[in-house]
Amino acid sequence: MADNNRLIIIDGSSMLVTSYYGNLPRQILFEKDPEVKKTHYDKIMHNDKGEFTNAMFAMLRTLMKIFKDQRPSHIAFAFDKSRDTFRRNMYADYKANRGDTPEPLKEQFVNMEKLLEDAGLPVFYDDDYEADDIAGTIAKRFEKEIPTFIITKDHDYLQLVNEYTRLWLIQTKQDLADDIMTRYSGEVISGKDSYKIPDKAVEVSPLICRAEYGVWPYQIPDLKGIVGDSSDNIPGVKGVSSAAAPLLSKYDDLEGIYRAIDECPDEKAKKALAASWKEELGVTRSPIKAMIENREIARLSKDLATIRTDYPLDKSLDDLAINIDKDRLRESFEHYGFKSLMDKI
Hints:
alpha/beta, six-stranded mixed β-sheet, Rossmann fold, 6 strands, globular, DNA polymerase, domain 1, 8% strand
């Protein structure tokens, strides 16, 4: 395999949502009333057939820059298809805090997936698995065969980072990404290959994950088991968040923390354990009572936050090699009115 080969896995849902909100008219972007927003839908970018295109256009522009700058040899797109996945069967309130997807965006999910598929690009989505499970499965399957990179703004993906797979984690602003990367300028994949990091992205290695977030990548589910995740409505253990990273640094995982607690035969021993945590780890407020009372919630939260890598993937690495049908892509661009993108094909 050539030295410059690389597989880029793109969280298509994350990129399309970001593209949608980043390319909305101000009348909608800053309006809080959902019904008033709908009255301005006609101002959203659309083609001559009335199909909304603002998210698709912005995402395609981003993708073309990725193809130009990062020059992947292989690619895969992972999309969410539904919120009613196996996680909601585990916990009915999973992602229950999220509002409905706006109709102009919902429409573009379907059309964007079809556009990519028609162009011959590998697109994956599933009724039962989320995009991060699909991406995780693809990464684990091929990461030892080819340098692997994942593009997303979702911090859940941190747990997939290892010596073979790096995360290009998208930040809100370029200067924020630059600041983080400046601090870790030596932390890139070494060797003959060279590449440019995408705009607004931080390349996360295991060491950067440990330095920035206080835990190693494999500990991210354990961390979320304790602190929860408000964006996905994962509960965690209330009032223990500041103790999570120090405890995981000592005990490695959630189960290790509970073993230490369970080895205490009485309240006196628990108080001694809490005192040792305060002295050694700087945990000033004992989390023991909360951890005991929320043991099952902590375990459930960790399970919910764990990316699965058992998605039934029936593709080989060769199936992910980039082979774009430029004629079909031109047809799609013409259909959606993307004239300014035609010369970039």
